[in-house]
Amino acid sequence: MIVENKNGWMPFLHSDKSIRKESTISNTLQMSSPVYRLAYKDEDFLKSQEVRPLRFALELMKVESNLREHNIKSTIVLFGGARIPEPGYSAWAAENAVQKKNLEAASCYYNEARQFARLCSQYSSTTHYREFVIVTGGGPGIMEAGNRGATDVGAPSIAFNIAVPHEQTPNPYITPDLCFNFHYFAMRKMHFLMRAKALAIFPGGFGTFDELFETLTLIQTSRMERVPILMFGKIFWKKALNVDYLAEQGTISPDDVKLLSFVDNAIEGWERVRAFYQL
């Protein structure tokens, strides 16, 4: 501390007594109470039910801010099963012999997802990676294949991981600066679709169906512009999802069936995207 005396400015040294006094003040019962913490440093408060709307907003703002910093304007979204292995690897998630056989047979979709991501990323390079950037859920299986395909051609790729008990450790092919983590499924879905120019839907389970139907509902109700929805694996989807039956029953419009494009390989899928946008 600097003080002025009759000889001019000079340092003023605290006495031991004054130091002890300041130390005592900083350790009062009032200052050690959790209520006294600054709001943005109070973890208990930030995790409270009352602050949930702000946490929700923060998940919107953080990702939005980072993607803008990277000048990313549009994406191609890959959805599909986390349990589908890379060809030549055992089906780690299989719970019986039938599942093991089927999941390992489905490994062909890993290759198609990887190749599709390559094709999209090669086009993205012509836009300086502003458009058609690959985004996945960040986990293993089809998600890993998507991020890996972008890495194959030196392109960045995004991942929207989520805090769940299984299958959500980020795969090693995600661009580190674009690897996000969510608590809220709803906000994660919102970010998946805010910039989506196409969706590539590979065989998957409840999560894949959830994301597919969310998108179809938004397009059907005109809350989202129509984009190509590519259903990879005609045989799988014709058995797993009978949209023609829904149309026959009148629960959806006959035109709603046209929202889905069934394809079998990466080249066919990419050609659908090119034709839709006249690239």
Give an overview in words:
The chain has 279 residues and is of the alpha/beta class. Helices cover 44% and strands 15% of the residues. The protein has helices at 16-26, 43-46, 52-69, 97-105, 108-125, 142-152, 185-194, 206-220, 234-240, 243-249, 266-277; strands spanning 2-5, 8-11, 75-79, 133-136, 157-162, 179-182, 196-201, 229-232, 260-263. The strands form 2 sheets. A 7-stranded parallel β-sheet has the order 6-5-4-3-7-8-9, with helices on both faces. Strands 1-2 form a two-stranded antiparallel ribbon. Strand 4 (133-136), helix 6 and strand 5 form a beta-alpha-beta unit. The longest helix is centred in the N-terminal third of the chain and has 18 residues, at 52-69. The radius of gyration is 26 Å and the shape is globular. 32% of the residues are buried. The mean pLDDT is 91.
Low-confidence stretches: none
Instruction: Please give the largest β-sheet.
Output: 7 strands, parallel
Q: Looking at the structure, what is the overall shape?
A: globular
Structural class by SSE content: alpha/beta
Beta-strand percentage range: 5-15%
Gap between N and C termini = 68 Å
What does the secondary structure layout of this molecule look like, with pairings?
Blueprint: E1 2-5, E2 8-11, H1 16-26, H2 43-46, H3 52-69, E3 75-79, H4 97-105, H5 108-125, E4 133-136, H6 142-152, E5 157-162, E6 179-182, H7 185-194, E7 196-201, H8 206-220, E8 229-232, H9 234-240, H10 243-249, E9 260-263, H11 266-277
Parallel strand pairs: 3-4, 3-7, 4-5, 5-6, 7-8, 8-9
Antiparallel strand pairs: 1-2
Helix pairs in contact: 3-7, 5-6, 5-11
